[in-house]
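Methods — Computational structure assignment.
A single polypeptide chain was analysed. Its primary sequence is given first, followed by the predicted tertiary structure written as structure tokens.
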Amino acid sequence: MFDTHAALSEVLAGVDDLTVDLDPGVAARLAASGDRTLVPRVQAAMERFLDEGNFYGVEVLADVLAGILGTRAFPLLLRASARPLGHDWDSLIGLLGQLMDADPAGCRPTARLFATERHPDLRLAGLWALGYVVTADDLDLLGAALRDADPHVRQIALGSVGSLRGDARVLPAVLEALRDPDPAVRGTAVLTVGDVGDLGALDSLLALRRDPSPRVRSLLGHATGQLIAPGWGPPRTPPGPAQVETAVAALVDLLADPDREVRVGAVQGLGMIGGPSAVGALIALADDPDAAIRAAVAFALGTLAAPDTVATLRVLARDEAAQVRSELVTALGRPGRPEAVPLVVALAADPDPDVRVRAAAAIGRLDDTAALDTVRRLAADDPEPRVRRTAAAVLARQAASAPA
């Protein structure tokens, strides 16, 4: 019989003293036990770990608490995530997201309650959570937060507003945020425009090419690409030819920006949009003196698979910077790209081990039976252990997916 309280004592001892071996399976069994008599002890220990800054302990017990209580653990865990301990809480944030996905209606009242708290940390946690469970009825609450004196409050609220795609009240709020005095808020607004996907925002977005903040300008490429050629989200009204031309011209203009990250962002946006004008601008950058720009170009052109890029791709495959060759082989390794196989196979013999690692992985994604011989050679003979490990993993996945 599984003694849950003894098991919890074992977990707490292992978290308190990292020299004690902690079997992760014990915490998993506690989470699956459904024993609610454990909850007071778990809560008390979690509070202690929060006070001590024991992030590992908090995240172990968060999993236990969520397993026992399900979405009823949401208020406790959201409160824990609000503690300003200088930790990013990746695991805890992911767990909160799972709980909200499982029961958005059940978690929404807690998110709203926190979003109206006077304590700033709790309020920020609530505004963030609303982005997962938001409905049109929350827009008044979020609108008030967008007018808050604290730029961090405005930034978090803006991210949640962006989840309300299709609501006619969202676009004016986002356009107003593009003019916010705080650059972090303007940056979030730029990304939100791309996610919301309303082409009516295009001119306001592109006007930020002259924004004084390099960070804001660096986000324009991705946001413009997502607005014109969305890679995710619900179906949208496609842009007209004039809108595409305007967007491409604006991104080409950003290629002359003095800030490298702005230029990289513009290259990424052109790669997302594609088309003759964008491809021509990218090809012209293949000999840029900055390796970071050439690497972005290699990824963009490698992803587009345009027939008039073949000669440029071959040049980039011989680039002196391994970073460029790595980005190229990563982009080429996509299913349904038989024309990419010879170039990827050639890059599997690259002198840089990172390029060979990526080439092995790319061949696995290309799913070309003949090219797997190259992966077998890498697995057997490559002098670099990580290349051999990657190649062996590719072969194992291929074998596992092969028809019986």
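Note: The chain is about 70% helix and 0% strand.
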